[in-house]
Amino acid sequence: MMEMILLALALGLAGCLAGVLAGLFGIGGGAVLVPILLAAFGFLGVDPEVSAHLAVGTSLAIIIPTAVRSYRAHRGQGAGNAELLRRWRLWVPLGVVAASTIVPFVSGDVLRIVFAVVASVIAVKMLFNREGWTIAPDLPREGAQNGVGFGIGFVSTFMGIGGGNLNNLFMTSYGQPIHQAVATSAGLGVLIAIPAALGYAIAGWGHPALPPLTLGYIHLLGAALIIPFSYLAAPFGARLAHRLEPRKLELAFGLFLLVVVARMLWSALG
Description:
Layout: H1 2-25, H2 30-43, H3 48-76, H4 82-100, H5 108-127, H6 142-159, H7 164-173, H8 178-203, E1 214-215, E2 218-219, H9 220-243, H10 246-269
Antiparallel strand pairs: 1-2
């Protein structure tokens, strides 16, 4: 009983951290939730065959309310590209749906590799950003933006994140300020997390290896323990983001991603 209480407290603290990071970096919180949920499911003895998918699906369910709260906080600061989000309201979910049809046939190891590789590329971009790494001073034309939205939705579904990592890379590569990218990423999390969570719930429906209290690949108890904390903490992260200088925010984001990747690789090797 004591171990379960400690686990519940740990998940609550993880929710606070995820909420702050969601507001700070516009990432929805999945980048920190997935490895924490993997560790928690390992502690609970969840079958390794489904633990990675369960961590990703649960993370996506948690991102929905967290991203809504985070985006509203950023909009209150006058940031966020609402026009881009309106343009992506169809293309991002299409990418999510396409990826969701493939997820059931992908191993947990592949999900971990995709997460580590993509996060590492983004971390390098943020840490060693150079003026010559900017592709153009403004966002590309509408057709290219639609394709990027589809791609972000597709890859984010495999990574179990709200798309903020990828959108921050996209927008800063096209000359957009990091604060604007972070605010837009917060809203993007909603477009991705809703269809992606639904897809994971359907994909895991009736799987014999799943533990009790699950809705497909969504662990209901884990989500219920984390969501209140992440929801309440998101505005604090958003306010902190707007107090940081752009370059400091980029460095903080890059370092955070490296820590997450290192932690995941350490767990895999262990």
